[in-house]
Specification:
The chain is α+β, with helices and mostly antiparallel strands. Helix content is 32%, strand content 21%. It is built from eleven helices and 18 strands. The strands form four sheets. It has a six-stranded antiparallel sheet with strand order 1-6-2-3-4-5, with no helix packed on it. β15 and β16 (211-219) form a beta hairpin. The longest helix has 28 residues, at 319-346. The chain is elongated and about 100 Å long.
């Protein structure tokens, strides 16, 4: 397969078609520009004719388009050739002196212009640059997975265009070589901070019943809570084993470890991976979910949807008491805020201001409101997420109340029934 190219420099030996005397002819460039820049090219036709000074606008280079190597396309990690002569020959008029720093370095394809040209982002260059596909080779090596620092893999780059700051604990500035994200101009990790992650990289594969594909072991020194991807255990009964207090002993044994599937983005922490009962509802998981209300409401709802009969076991474990406690704390916080607002409205100059303060103290005042808010914030993080968690807990309580108050069905379907 061939394609016509008219925006590249021509050199001696290029196969071309040229337009002379109202007809197109096939041939080759015998010599580049003859004399002045606009003098044209000397061309030899396949029929033996020779033409001198053919203008560039009357010539089209015939480029052979070869099949791209497997894996070479948008999003692919590639290694740029280290042969400067080959690079200059293929790049032609697209070669620039600053490309020299990119030779032999890794980059990522951000755009495929056609089957001959790729836009590549390389940390050794100032920005994206267009490279001939012949200069690029897909790189199949595994990057360093540091999910508690960055969502993309990091690769070693020995010639950074811009100095970077280490994203690890050391915070070293001015790095010119580091593990860095090929898609980002900021994230970098020095060798020392990368050591804990490198120890787990490429040491084999793991299998688990929770995922069909093999998993690669990775390190999470900061724990799953800091991970850019959530642990799959976060939505099973009991939640992630690395974060629930009743699983603290098991979590300590697998601290800082996890397994990850790069193809699907599946992540499971070491504590969840080691729990043979992960996904099952047990006395420990029920206690963990009730203790972590209201954040655990989505997990409880998912468990009840899959197994409606689980409501009885949760009730025996204290679900309704937990919901009452959660909503009571939210109500106390709201009452404290209302009292503070009322006191502020009544307060004024002199005695009226003092009376406003007294009413605030008697009614629970700001102190009660702050305590209620703190109780919610400790569970839900920000005030907005805490309000959403409380709203979800209130919805769960109403749904359970409606279900328990509903009458038994008067008619049932004939035939066998599956009873949970």
């Amino acid at each position: 397969e061939v394609m016509l190219v008219n925006d590249e420099d021509l050199i001696a030996g290029d196969t071309v078609i040229f337009h002379v005397e109202g007809r197109w002819h096939a041939g080759r460039i015998a010599a580049p520009l003859s004399g002045e820049e606009d003098a044209g090219f000397d061309v030899e036709g396949e029929d033996g004719r020779k033409e001198k000074g053919v203008p560039r606008r009357h010539i089209h280079m015939v480029a052979v388009v070869e099949d791209l190597p497997e894996g070479l396309g948008e999003g692919a990690v590639v290694r740029i050739t280290g042969d400067v002569e080959q690079a200059k020959l293929l790049q032609r008029n697209r070669w620039a002196d600053e490309f020299q720093n990119c030779l032999g370095q890794l980059g990522v394809v951000v755009e495929s212009k056609d089957r001959r040209r790729m836009v590549v982002l390389c940390p050794a260059s100032a920005g994206p640059a267009t490279w001939h596909a012949g200069c690029l080779t897909p790189d199949t090596s595994e990057g360093l997975r540091c999910l508690d620092l960055h969502e993309h893999p990091l690769w070693w780059c020995a010639s950074l265009h811009n100095a970077r700051k280490c994203a690890g604990d050391c915070g070293t500035e001015g790095l010119r070589e580091a593990y860095c994200c090929l898609r980002s101009s900021e994230t970098a990790l020095c060798k020392d901070c990368a050591a804990p992650y490198a120890e787990k990289s490429g040491i084999g594969q793991l299998r688990t019943r929770h995922h069909l594909r093999p998993l690669a072991p990775i390190a999470l020194p900061r724990g799953p809570k800091q991970s850019r991807l959530p642990c799959v255990g976060a939505m099973v009964p009991g939640g992630c084993r690395s974060q629930a207090e009743c699983f603290a002993e098991d979590a300590a044994k697998a601290a800082g470890t996890a397994a990850f599937c790069a193809e699907t983005g599946f992540l499971i922490c070491g504590a969840c991976l080691a729990d043979q009962e992960l996904g099952e509802a047990t006395a420990r998981t029920r206690k963990a979910d009730i203790d972590s209300l209201p954040e655990s409401v989505p997990r409880i709802q998912a468990a009840l949807k899959a197994h409606p009969g689980e409501v009885f076991a949760l009730a025996e474990a204290g679900l309704f008491a937990g919901l009452s406690r959660c909503l009571g704390a939210a109500g106390a916080g709201a009452g404290g805020r209302a009292a503070a607002a009322a006191a502020g409205g009544k307060g004024g100059a002199g005695a009226k201001g003092q009376k406003g303060k007294g009413a605030s103290a008697e009614g629970g005042g700001p102190a009660a409101g702050e305590e209620g808010d703190a109780g919610i914030s400790r569970r839900g993080g920000s005030s907005s997420s805490a309000a959403a968690d409380v709203a979800a807990a209130r919805g769960l309580a109403l749904d359970l109340g409606a279900w328990l108050a509903s009458p038994a069905p008067e008619r049932v379907h004939a035939g066998p029934l599956l009873v949970d």
